[in-house]
Amino acid sequence: MDIQSLVIILRGALSPNSDERKAAEESLNPFQYTPQHLVRLLQIIVDGSSDIAVREVASIHFKNFIAKNWSPHDTGEQSKILPGDKEMVRQNVLISVAQVPSLLRVQLGESLKIMIYADYPEQWPTLLRWVKHNLLDQQVYGILFVLRILSRKYDADEIAKLAPGNSFFSILNRSQLEIPKKLFDPNVFNAWMVLFLDILERPVPLEGQPTDPEIRKLWGWWKVKKWIVRILNRLSLWFGDVKLQTPDNEAETFQENYAGKFFECHLNLLNVLRGGCYLPDRVTHLVLQYLSNSISKSNMYILLQPRLDIVLFEIIFPLMCFNDNDQKLWEEDPHEYVRKSYDIIEDSYSPRAAARDFVTELVRKRGIKNLQKFMVFIVEIFKRYEEAAPEYKPYRQKDGALFAIGTLCYKLKHTEPYKSDLELMLVQHVFPEFSSPVGHLRAKAAWVAGEYAHLNFSDPNNFRKALHFVVAGVHDPDLPVRVDSVCALRTFVDAFRDLNEIRPILPQLLDEIYKLMNEVENEDVVFTLETIVYKFGVEMAPYAHGLCHNLAAAFWKYINTGEDDEDGDDPGSPVPFGCLRAIGTIIESISHLPHLFVHIEPTLVPIMRRMLSTDGQGKKYVSLLTDSCSCRDLQRSYGNCFIYDIVPANNIHGNVESLAINDGSTSRAIDFFPNILVFLDNYISKSTTHFLTCKDPDYQQSLWNMISSVMGDESLEDGIIEPAPKLIQVLFQNSKGQVDHWVEPYIRITIECLHRAEKPYLKCLLIQVIAVTLYYNGSMTLNILQKHGVATETFNLWFEMLGQTKKSGVRVNFKREHDKKVCCLGLLSLLSLPADQLPEETLECIFKAILDLLVAYKDQVAAAKEEEEEAEDDDDMDGGLQTEEGDEADNSRIIKLAAQKKAFRASDEDPFILFVETIKAMQASDQLRYQSLTQNLDFHYQALADDVAQHAEQRRVEIEKEKVEKESTTVAA
């Protein structure tokens, strides 16, 4: 096939019409193994004049074909790719990687990885020569791309063998987790240590140092010192414990001969800061990191103690204070000041962050004496500040002192005598700074107040004062003060249950937060909004539309800003993620008011289309997006968007690429299958009629194509297959009597998969598919199993798995409430079958299994309810002002919400009531069979049957009560 014909077929694979796509794929199959096919695909990929969509399709097919055929999985199997074609691809793919757009490069990169792993060095000895040649020609990008793949294939020892001339710097920093054995040679190691000491001890010459700060920190002298300190940090961690078993006891050698000398060098480096001399921020950070890691080591702490006061009060504390660079940034670029203040990456380079970590580690590892010493120093600063005249007040030192008590919040709240005086400290030294003429002190006061919002205030009025000060700061003229105030507001909202202090001003607060979201890109601001939504719950309904609209606007702003960057496929910001998370919280808060979704839907659908499209955003946000929109009464647009626009996309090979997103990542689309599962469960459950009746597109066929591709792929691991049987359950649970024609195909592929399954959990899921189809139509399912000759083995396996227990008596399989319920419903359907379909001995076995399952299910539900009530009681014990603290509270809430969203429901039918009704029906239709079954039961199972019957009556009452309450709530809403 020539290139033009191949292009036409590939273009056909892009058609929105499923028949045309399928025809194109089928026409491509006969030519896959013909000579030059792979070469022609590569030519299409590289051809810049071709349609980018066709080139993308070609790149995907190229990658899939290489993954399947380049290196046969079975020993002795011959490759279906001609050696000449392989050689031609090897010769051209390297240079192609550097030439094509990023959308195609990642596909070629994945292909290149497969080829390198299979062929280098035996079949590809010219690879390193190509690297050397392109290095001389300055083809840096292609080299780095190839070397990155090579580095993943080889560990540090093998890299050292490949490049024996590499320096200690490059080899050690390439090894993140271990040190290459070559460097354990005592002569080599000692030589490097001596050289490091020599360079660290040498003073940096003043002559020749650049005056420009950005150039100065990159000057050769400082770069060398930076890299040495960075390497020594790694060595101190690696050799920090002399008990560590290393070749030739290098840990002991390092600690005895070098650790102390390096420690002295680090202290001397820091000492220049006392005189106001220059030390690059990155070097300062790394040196302090080294000292922090040394605090726990007795031999290092002994060296530190004589100079601890100097280090703590003359070096560390000044680094914690507001400085000239901060002032300049505050005045000239407040947006950048805010960004740097909240950027986690900045903490990796900031001397202030390193100073904070040093103090935290010191009081944590070296006890109360150091805390007492430091707090005496801080109190003295507070005192000097209070006594000084306004024009002489040490504003910057006060800022550092506030930063210190905020940093040590957790320690101070749990240590006497400080914890008893914290409320007084806030009133005397923090509250006054809310009205300070100095902006950075107003901002610091808001931050400190937020850190102590969970304090158990003896006077509730002090809590309210702090809250009012923070709320006032939301309107401050200085941007950093507004941001710190809004972020502090989150902890206040989270800290108490009576929201009457905020409720009257809630609309104004929301407006200010909206304005701030438009002004700065800050995840903590979005998180405050999310916390307000969570705390006010149903009260947020009147604001739901406005909230979603503003969050969506912020989301698009941040996404579009990210696309303007050089790496437009990923904005690199957590803020869009925070916006989507907040939208999910809003949806959760109005879950009982489905009519509001009509107004929110137009705002969310474009985001869903975007996040589940073929660009890079999908990979980053699809999980959160599907979680946010799952298990809710959303409109059918979501399903249309997802199934119609996303599932058929890029379906060129009839395999898992058609499952979801091809975002240009190196991961296969199958990685997104769990996300699709959550979304499709919601869509099938909530828009069942549309799902079943729509023929253009044919959703039922799309679902079958998707599931059969996954469950029929023998190369996939069990863990990846697991979402597929869950989706089958969803289909039959929600479509009873409407999808008879799908019962046999799904049973067939389930049994085939069951024969290959290895993990017990996947086997449980597949057995549950059988249970669900039995519940859907017991007679039809049993006939299909018998028709394929697998009925006996399937039920034997099922009962065997039901009977497996640990020594403690806990079930090995079907552990979840859902699992037990599904098994009950499936087995109950068999009790309704005529006697000629179910022998009496089989009937008794099934009956006993049902009773065991029902009792276990009842006990598990009761235990879960008890745990939930205990958790609620624990939440109420804090008296309204004291709750879970900080990130732990946030994480707990998020985990709970995620668990609720991702829970797959079994049928709404109550298994206890169904059991009683089924037995009554048997008694009425076949009295002899009923008597034979019940009279042959031993005392244990008779007692279980009575217990289940009593619980069924209890459930009838509860269900009726829940029904009435729900109707009342709906009417009230």
Automatic annotation (TrEMBL):
Residues 24-99 form the Importin N-terminal domain. GO terms for molecular function: small GTPase binding. Keywords: Cytoplasm, Nucleus, Protein transport, Transport. Residues 866-888 are annotated as: Disordered. The keyword Protein transport applies. GO terms for biological process: protein import into nucleus. It is found in: Cytoplasm; Nucleus. One of its GO terms (cellular component) is nuclear envelope. PANTHER family: D-IMPORTIN 7_RANBP7, IMPORTIN-7, 8, 11. Belongs to the importin beta family. This is Importin beta-like sad2.
